[in-house]
Amino acid sequence: MRKKLGLYVFIILLIFIIIPALIVKCFQHTDTENEDNSEGTTIKILDVQHNKALEMEFEDYIKCVVAGEMPATFEEEALKAQAVAARTFTIRRMQGTTSAHPQYDICTDYKCCQAFISKEDRLKAWQDSGVSAADSLLRWQKIEKAVDDTKGKVLVYSGELISALYFSASGGKTENSEDYFVSAYPYLRSVDSPYEGTTYKNIETTITLKDFLTILKTKYPDFKIDQSKVAQNIKINSYTTGGKVKEIVIGNKNLSGREVRELFDLRSSGFTIKLSGSNITFTTNGNGHGVGMSQYGANGYAKNGYTFDEILLHYYLGAEIVDYSTLK
After folding, report:
1. Does residue 5 surpass a pLDDT of 60?
2. What is the pLDDT of residues 280-328, one digit of tens each?
3. Max Cα distance, the chain (Å)
4. How far apart, in Å, do the first and last CA atoms of the chain sit?
């Protein structure tokens, strides 16, 4: 009788507890596998600022890029546009190789790849600047939402990921890619950027004439100029479609606007140059290389009611926004 009772108890346990538990566990395992397949992509990062290697989940990395590249106080649609551009830039970089750091997918030097700041460092920086802990967390959640709401979305042209370049402000008009870099891309064409505001307008950079000539001579040992007629020996010969300096003659040197910008650490190649007494003054409009999406322009468009996709398709001509999964 006891054996039969024990058997009955075992059968009841088997039917009502053990089997259902196994079924649930099986489905939980399947769900976890599916989640890992869609969200488990990791990225290897060279943290230049801290001289160390990082490895993190891909979309978490994009959040740190958006936090480093664009103020969280910008409009939500601008942050979304930044997220899509950063995601596209990152995946394209991951698919290629970079001689600067071939063992990593990307680095945190914005001059080489993209800006990056961790959640902890970003929250601390906000709080150090006087933002409350609660408001700092709200800012981070705003960035997270912008990335999550555009998850997986990338920019393509003719079915291929674009080179999603972006920068701070153009001064009113972006550049054709070949006017600053080497390659001409059909989607990186000069377009109007009318809503950037005045943040990077008419910025003056003044250096002494002596330093001006020394820098040129150091960079170009064959540089010569009549020091009694410096003003007469500086001439801007041509401008780009975007209104930046294309070619400028200084003494016996014929230089590009980009060369002068980098040589004198100017914000933009959209500059004028003036000699006043013993000083040289550059007046710049814009901030950055000027190719692709203007971040301040994106925020201006968002303030005027444009959505992130409208913003992106304005700055990347002929591009499409698709889910990356459709390209695999």
Report:
1. no
2. 999 999 999 999 999 999 999 999 999 999 999 999 999 999 999 998 7
3. 119
4. 64
Residue pair 277/261 in contact (Cβ under 8 Å)? The answer is no
What's the CA gap between 102 and 96, in Å, rounded? 9
Angle at 110 between CA 295 and CA 93, to 5 degrees: 95
Domain that holds residue 50: 42-196+290-327
Per-residue model confidence as pLDDT tens digits over 273-293: 999 999 999 999 999 999 999
Segment holding 207, helix H or strand E? strand 203-208
pLDDT (tens digit, 9 = 90+) per residue, 73-108? 999 999 999 999 999 999 999 988 567 888 999 999
How far apart are the C-alpha atoms of 159 and 97, rounded to whole Å? 21
Residue 19 domain flag: no
Q: How many domains does the chain have?
A: 2
Q: Give CA torsion, residues 245, 92, 41, 35, to 10 deg.
A: 100
Q: Do residues 286 and 169 lie in contact, with contact meaning Cβ atoms separated by under 8 Å?
A: yes
Distance CA 195, CA 74 (A): 13
Residues 6 or more apart whose Cβ sits within 8 Å of residue 191: 173, 174, 314, 315, 317
Q: Is residue 103 part of a domain?
A: yes
Q: What share of the chain is helix, strand, coil (3-state, %, to 5)?
A: 45, 20, 35
Angle at 68 between CA 110 and CA 123, to 5 degrees: 145
Q: What is the mean pLDDT of residues 245-251?
A: 98
Same domain? For 55 and 140 the reply is yes
Place of tokens 């945190």: 108
Question: Residues 255, 295: one domain?
Answer: no
177 backbone φψ class: left, alpha, beta (φ>0; ψ -120 to 50): alpha
Strands ordered across the beta sheet of 160-161 = 160-161, 153-157, 320-323
103 three-state secondary structure: coil
Whether residue 170 sits in one domain with residue 46: yes
